[in-house]
Amino acid sequence: MKIYFSLFPFLVLLLSAGQTSGQSASVSGLVADSADQLPLRGAHVKLATPQDSTVQETILNDKGNFLFRNIPGGDYHLTIQFLGYATHSSQLTVKEGQEYQAGTILMGVNATELGLIEVLGKPVPVQIKGDTTEFNAAAYTTPPYSDAEELIKKLPGVEVGADGSVKAQGEEIRKVLVDGKEFFGNDPQIAMKNLPADIIDKIQIIDDQSEQAKFTGFDDGNRIKTMNIVTRPDKRVGQFGRMNASLGNQDRYSAGGNYNYRNGGNRYTVIGMTNNVNQQNFANQDLLGVMGGGGGRGRRNNDFYIGSRNGNTVTNALGVDFNGEWLEDTDISGSYFYNSASNNLDQFTNREYILGKNTNQLNQRESGSESRNFNHRVNLQVEYEIDSMNSISLRPNLSFQDHNSHRTSYSETMLSTGEALNNSRSNNFSDNSGYRFDGGMTFRHRFQKRGRTISMNIDASSNTNRSLSNNNSLNLFYKNGVENRLDTIDQLGNSESGGWGFTSRISYTEPLGEYSRLRTNYSLRNTESSSEREIYDYLVATGQYELLNTDLSNEFLNDYMYHRAGLAYQYSKEKFSVDFGMEYQHAHIENRQVFPEVFDAGRSFSSILPEASLSYEFAERQRLRLSYRTDTDAPSISQLQNVIDNSNPLNIRSGNPDLKQAFAHNFSLRYNSFDRETEQHFFASFSADFSNNRIVNSTFIASGDTTIDGHIVLGKGARFSRPENINGFYALRSHASYGKPIEALKLNVNLNTGLSHTHDVGFLNRESTWSNSYGINQGVSLHSNISENINFGAATNINFNITRNDRQAELDRNYFSQNVSVYGTYIFWKGLRVSTNFNYNYNKGYADGYDERFLLWNASVGKSFLKKENAEIRLSAYDLLNNNTNISRNVTERYIEDSRSNTLQQYFLLSINYHLRSFGSGGEGFRRGGPGGRGGRRSF
Questions:
Q1: Under DSSP, is residue 578 helix (H, G, I), strand (E, B) or coil?
Q2: Beta-carbon count within 10 A of 19 CB
Q3: Which of 106, 263, 500, 637 could form a disulfide with 462 if both were Cys (CB 3.0 to 4.6 A apart)?
Q4: Is 238 left (phi over 0), alpha (psi -120 to 50) or beta?
């Protein structure tokens, strides 16, 4: 009945949609060449408000028609662009319910041409439009056949990490669109590595709102830092791509490519690769577990193409993506992606536990692992406009996964005086498989009265994970430095977990006047999950795993439900907007254990969730935004399940069925400005996060053999952890970025500064602990803007961290790290290309043996050939000095950990690369004067 109840309002709205008599406005027209009146296929048409906020945009099809539906009445700017033609710009006023006919709009060829290059004056590099910072690609030079990443790393305020991750204005890019459309399910690295820089017109960095917020106009706080890559209008009809194959010493190889076909709003892409040089192709949601017990560290959500630094990885991948506008009122997009990755990882870890008055403990671990991961992932999105007043969107996603691993490790624990406490040798394997389905359906309706809307959305998910594992370990414990007790564990585990859930929401907005509106909403969420774990001990007498260990086995069910209702008010006028509101949430958690003992426990929570935001535009290119949000976070079933996990006998874990939901506060302040005369771009932000009932791991370290949960013996120096709720956590962060061109030197200068302070809290040996960490980050980068044939840059990133702990002042730590990178490419004499890059890393303040400095030097030399120089043979050298290493540090309120893992070192590759470019009419940007005249095709 829960599901039926949540679907009822949606079904009522859906059935009533077709009976609505009112109509909102639409705008339509035809775009053609002024000389012969033929349609301009591929032209870009945008409809925007006078404040330059885009309402709708499209790319013209073969017939040259455009149609914007579901337009509220008001004043608009209509802009049409096509390279080689003068931009068309007009103003129009649309009345409610009107079908506005713009007629035939004739575009004339731009009169100012020099050969095949338009002289339009110096391009403006940056523009600020509301929550969007837009960079003009024409203001930045890149070598021929560069990918989008080469262009993006030159943008002010944008940082491209060594692992391929991208940060803009201090925040990680979590979503990348191409011409406003999803690309391979929003994986950022696909667009970065598979789109060529020479087809890009603009790069937009957007604090993107949810689709619901865009529709209602109320900021719900669900913002994602998004990059929209806008392609050149003359490159939207045709095909492009690249292919490469490489062979090297040490049996190294790499091969792959991509093919893209575009025809206006229709887009098709195929990508594939195979290699053993640590180029990986998976996102975090593709992994059932961490590869190799640590090989996944450093990956970001939605990453596709990552240069892994942990272990050695063999990758095979294939992907298909499409975006179609085959039906007049329907947009369909989707993708399929397959990958497999095999990883070999060797890791050394040094961890120091801070115990306060007692002598600290040191734990050292050496481990090796082999793992394989397979994944199939399908994404689909359908946007259907029923009529000018009603629309429906569907977003189903499905993935299948299989992951298996084998790991061996040796660990020893000692006091800081050197006295041995324990050691452990383990040999474990696991085999996991599972699926996940999630999707959403949204219905939206606009009433005839401007500003009055109603919408309903339902998001649902279902997942299952099955695991078979073997835990084999030999554990030796000491007493006063002498061997005291030997434990042997040999167990087979069989577990299955899964669940389903949905969240439904209905929202209604009502105008209160010309500048103010009211929103009311109601949400219902219900998730049910289960976990069953069976552990069997090995019996020597029978040679079988057949004795059920009831202390380690468990069957557990969890049900979480909340009702949430709220009211919000908004006032918006010209450059000023403010909205504030409040929601009331009543949540209930029900836990039920079926085995080994039966018990039920439930608890309810009532919460008041205030929210507010303010936006003010000081001038045309200066904007300030302030927001405050609150939310709750329910514990997961793994955190609630009261079952012992002894897969690591020196670090035993358990869940806690008495956990409460966490309550979080977030404050944020952002300022953005651009000076057109000096071309200076400045961005600053500040955020503060506070948490009540934060869920943290409480750790108990045994000073002698200790029995936990009445059954399990925890040996001396071993650790037992379980989640607990605690108050007092807060985190403060600030970031500023500044960019400016130096015209005399043809350089772009970028400065990035970050400050942070985190007050972390936890439990150690049943006492609350805290640590204060302070971080200072300074980045400086220079990138050339001389020509396509000369490309160079340099960057440094400095991090200084201070950690203060409440246990012992002498254990306070300061550590410093710096990375310096220099790169350069020079193209001369008939396409001969020489490239090199240097990366210098320096660490100080780490544990003994981890304070290292090393220089990583890569270089290549290549020669272009064929008529258009779109093929190249290249010899590349990686890590010429054979110095590459991988070191990291992790600091918590309980311990400081330094780790080192194997990574790919010196190798050489001989490669052949081929680039495809073939665009339709006006393929190089001109309908007239280009090769072949009208309708001619230029390929290279």
A1: strand
A2: 6
A3: 500
A4: left
